[in-house]
Write a structure and sequence with these properties.
seven-stranded mixed β-sheet; Spore Coat Polysaccharide Biosynthesis Protein SpsA, Chain A; alpha/beta; 7 strands; globular
């Protein structure tokens, strides 16, 4: 049985070729890895480019990541099942390492380490991540990587992906803490370059966090996940980061300012975190680092 890699893709014309080349045409590629690409609501050449590689392409007419994940899952045949964002590049070796991690007894989800790439990012963006990357909410969790591997047993715990912005938070929550593994290899996650783009990312992340907490409340005991994720704590940046490293206080000023601006943006009438996956005007950026 192959390892299946499901890739939801929204207007990823500029990035998806690098990923698919690495997975299907590099020296490490092989028949043990099945790739399924699910372009959704694309108005660029994402689907056409994907068809140029030895992958399965299943198109979804509307821009919806959960719909794309469900469509990809419906045709994928193998396990472990890896859910991979289209705008990062992972090697077949990393895919296989995730598979090996899930072969261990009691392991049902695996992720790589994360390496936040701040190349070209403005000083406020760098300052924000100096705080954000140290927040305890990310410790031992699956989200913020752009790639999550599930065992067949973990995948059988739910039917379809719910209509949530935070699909990675959902996957994190269905797997208990002692069932998660982090492999030694890292995935490179690009931070936004401009402060305005960062504010939009944070606004979408916070909307996703709020939506997920509401989903937990509505599902109640019957739908209680194995490892529920608490919402971001208001003073965590101060208590868990700055008080332990006071030299980060100037960075904390940037962090708090960005969070406040993001809150204003997401409460602006007419703004939607779901419109074009929360992207401004639907352009295709590089992989976004998740924010708390």
């Amino acid at each position: 049985m192959p390892i299946s890699v499901v890739i939801p893709a929204y207007n990823e014309e500029a990035a998806i070729g690098r990923l698919l080349h690495e997975l299907t045409e590099s020296a490490e590629s092989g028949p043990d890895i099945e790739v399924v690409v699910a372009p959704n609501g694309c108005v660029d050449r994402t689907a056409a480019l994907a068809r140029g590689y030895d992958v399965c392409v299943v198109e979804v007419p509307t821009p919806s990541k959960p719909a794309a994940l469900n469509a990809g899952d419906a045709v994928a045949t193998g396990f472990p099942r890896i859910y991979l964002d289209a705008d990062i590049v992972v090697s077949p070796r990393l895919v296989r390492e995730l598979g090996r991690a899930l072969a261990a007894p009691g392991a049902h989800a695996a992720v790589p380490r994360v390496d936040i790439d701040l190349t070209g990012s403005s000083w406020p963006v760098r300052a924000f991540y100096a705080i954000n990357s140290r927040l305890p909410i990310f410790r031992g969790r699956l989200f913020g990587r752009g790639v999550i591997a599930l065992s067949q047993r973990a995948r059988e715990r739910f039917g379809q992906f719910p209509d949530l912005i935070g699909d990675d938070m959902f996957l994190d929550a269905i797997v208990a803490a002692d069932e998660k593994r982090e492999i030694g290899m890292a995935v490179r996650v690009a931070a936004p370059r401009r402060t305005g783009d960062l504010v939009r990312r944070v606004a979408r992340a916070r909307s996703g966090n709020a939506e997920f907490q509401e989903w937990l409340r509505q599902n109640g005991p019957a739908g209680a996940p194995a490892d529920p994720v608490a919402g971001p704590r208001m003073w965590s940046w101060l208590r868990d980061v700055v008080l332990r490293s006071p030299k980060l206080l100037p960075a904390a000023v940037c962090y708090v300012t960005v969070v406040l601006l993001a809150e204003l943006r997401r409460r602006t009438p007419g703004w939607s975190a779901r419109s074009g996956w929360g992207r401004p005007g639907g352009p295709t950026p590089t992989r976004r680092a998740r924010t708390g």
